[in-house]
Records
---
Amino acid sequence: MTAASYALIPEPVRIQPRTDSFTLTPDTTVAVDPGAGRAGAAWQRLVGHAPNTATTAGADVRITIDPAGLPAHGYRLTVDCDHIQVVGADSAGAFYGVQTLAQLMPTSLLADERRSWPVHVPGVRIVDHPRVSWRGVMLDVARHFMPKEFVLRLLDLLALHKLNVLHLHLTDDQGWRIEIPGYPRLTEIGAWRPETVIGHDTALEEWDLRYDGQPHGGFYTAAELREIVAYAADRFITVVPEVDMPGHMQAAIAAYPELGNGLAKPEVRRRWNVSTQVLNLTEPTVRFCLDVLDEVLRIFPSEFIHCGGDEVPRDEWRASFAVQERMRTLGLSDEDALQTWFTGRIADFLAESGRRLVGWDEILAAGPVPKGTVVMPWRGGQAVDAALRSGSDVVLTPAEHLYLNYNQSMDVHAEPLAIGGYVPLETVHAFDLPASGHVLGAQAQLWTEYINSPGLAEYMLFPRLCAFADTVWRPGGAYPDFLRSLRVHVTRLDALGVGYRPLDT
Ligand code: ACM
């Protein structure tokens, strides 16, 4: 065996090939430290039986915890002819060690087929750890609702690639996807649109647009969201919820027109691009936002709560006498200052609950943001520079590298209709993390304007998410090495039934 022949994604920090192998049978004894329960559960899902002995000393397979000599979330994995040993620096590290094992095992185990014994696990020594703590994926479930079952399946796929944040974009102009007590119309009305624009929605006049006449919608109950959160936590994934405000709020305004400025027809948006309908930011409207966040905080234990802040057109605020009057009362010089004031209110509210606001880079447009806020720069190098200069913590989300809703081929006519852009596999892999103590990590985005099914979502996510996982776990890997591993790794995706875009030959 050579190091490359293991074809692990993400590639581990250190890998030492061995020539022997471990023979796994139903009689193999398996012991798991009490602190590594979730790693033990992952082992059980993989091989089909529970750990069967209490004492690690004599067991054939040992999953233990020992922080000595390992960075946070790191692990050591040794497979030889006598043992499989996973030693995690902590419980997450032990879990990642088992995920590496999942890739070393025959793909039939991933496929959940009837297992045939014995199973040969190739010998190896690996020492591994992640470089950054935020290795995320954003899924937009607002533009097209994605069933809970798909979200759970995606969590399994994230875990296999050692990704650890699922950012759920829960609300937007075209749909509201979370039940909020006291505001039933958010889901009765806001979760549904009567129809959707057909084809590419460029900035055409309204009379040029055609619609499909098909109602679209859906939402998650609190119980369903709690199930997603728990399923994720079992896999060391944090679910970061996003309620986008004060723009991207047309669905909420359709449900409760008093939140808006009364300048446009209240309806859940049927087309894409950016709506000019925004919150009016009266005191009752701010109260509404805090009520929504109260419920969000009850459901999601995440330290990080995303409140959007992107793409807030100033048109309505400029045109509204009431908003201008409020700005004067608050002593705010312009509309930018109004957004900053609002961002501060939301950040303070979250801080009182020990949580931290996350926002897209537009929240920096009008001055400093409260301490503890996390910025996601998505609009190119200048936004990254501004975010890094702001002194806030940063999660990099650059469109030009990490928007997986962009085209993955130049031959757009051979691809499903996409929003535009060009982010092929190699461009995702070429993403590099700047060295800064303020960079928590990075995140790939899947906006779903043009992605109307789980199958299409998988096609856009994979294999680009494999490239992202490789580069965010251990930056600086060579693309040809990744590609060589990927040619083997797709057999794992095949076993899991992932509808990935076939590799270019
Ligand atoms: C964004 O793409 N509007 C964050």
Note: The mean pLDDT is 96.
---
Amino acid sequence: MSGKHWPPGTQCVTKHDHTKPKPQELAFHKGDVVTIIEAVEGKGWYRARHNETGQEGLMAASALRQRGAIRADPKLSLMPWFHGKISGAEAVQELQPPEDGLFLVRESVRHPGDYVLCVSFGKEVIHYRVVHEENTLSIDSQQHFSNLIDMIEHYMKEQGAICTKLVKPKPKSGMKSAEEELAKAGWLLNLQHLTLGDRIGQGEFGDVLQGEYMGQKVAVKNIKCDVTAQAFLTETAAMTKVRHKNLVCLLGVILHNGLYIVMEFMSKGNLVNFLRTRGRALVPTQQLLLFALDVAQGMDYLESKKLVHRDLAARNILISEENVAKVSDFGLARVDPKGADATLLPIKWTAPEALKHNKFSSKSDVWSYGILLWETFSFGRAPYPKLSLKEVTELLEQGYRMEPPEGCPPAVYALMKSCWALEPGKRPSFKKLTEKLQKELKHLGDV
Ligand code: ADP
Ligand code: MG
């Protein structure tokens, strides 16, 4: 039973039922998720809090396993019941044998753009046309939904105008329910415990809200569009694989209003705004170096997990209450892996080989890191000021590189330049960058 050293905050899943607890012990069912509070003196016991009930108590380590990672699997679907363009007759076939409340959704063949909800009831299959109107979906023109996920969520809770409450999704063959997989692994949070507050940011794909989850301050990214939510599963899967002080921590997800991604709350916002609003007068060089070091350490860890960021930039670095910088948005969700839409790439941050030949690697992340260093030491200026995207691409090919920001220590500028070596192999590793920054910090402390 030894060999488990879970620090406070570790999320664990229970391996079996424990319904008759002794005094001070926690009761639980198999598959419940708990948060470690502390290890108890002696062997193999932990004080933990039940994520569902909020109760605290003792638990045997042998009853627990640490929450696992979700594999980014293309078969993992938020809408496993969505069968695409199949005919009504095929839908009836899929819903055999009859079972009240067994359902699927298909695309209407006759009315392109509309969907059909097919529900098994009695010995029949009933087909409900879902009308797509002004960006909302509706079956009865009374209840409107912004996407299919919400609509299904609703009719699983309430019968409304249809023949029966939806009970059981019929998955498209080969598809796995992301909800089930997330729940099994312990990453599905409980909507009841979430309180939402003010909007703190606007992402490209949805709002970011402040909130509270079981007493902890959190940030919640809400992705309403179901297709985008599906794409974000990749990002979420990447987040379940990592745990590091310089990476924004995922608490879990909730399938509601599309998708909620619940993360630790970073009270001081993103690095660009942090620097712009405070400026040179309030942020000393030492703090800039500490941010740069934090990011390099987070990236070194990501590299060790063989994860490529692809969108490393100061806007994606968040600052905690204690001034710790953490890397966010590391799931590659936003960049098409086949590079089909090159116009979406953050040109001024992306390495030449990645732009031209779609060769993304930790070394192309290092190039972006050089740009991030430049942004940091210029207190949040946009890189290549006054140059158009086209000019940047051309000038870089001719060997042009940005000038150092005003007041930038020469050693730091040398680091930027090394990140901008044309040949990826000549760029430093994140480990090397970490060492150099530590040296520079020490040097600053000595003078
Ligand atoms: P996008 O999907 O556009 O990349 P981001 O994840 O970058 O969205 O979030 C947009 C903004 O919301 C950020 O710049 C930041 O200001 C705020 N934000 C995002 N995540 C958090 C968080 N965990 N804590 C605090 N603020 C956050
Ligand atoms: Mg972002």
Note: The pocket of adenosine-5'-diphosphate (ligand 1) is lined by residues 200-201, 203-205, 208, 219, 221, 248, 263, 265-266, 269-270, 315-316, 318, 328-329 (CB under 6 Å).
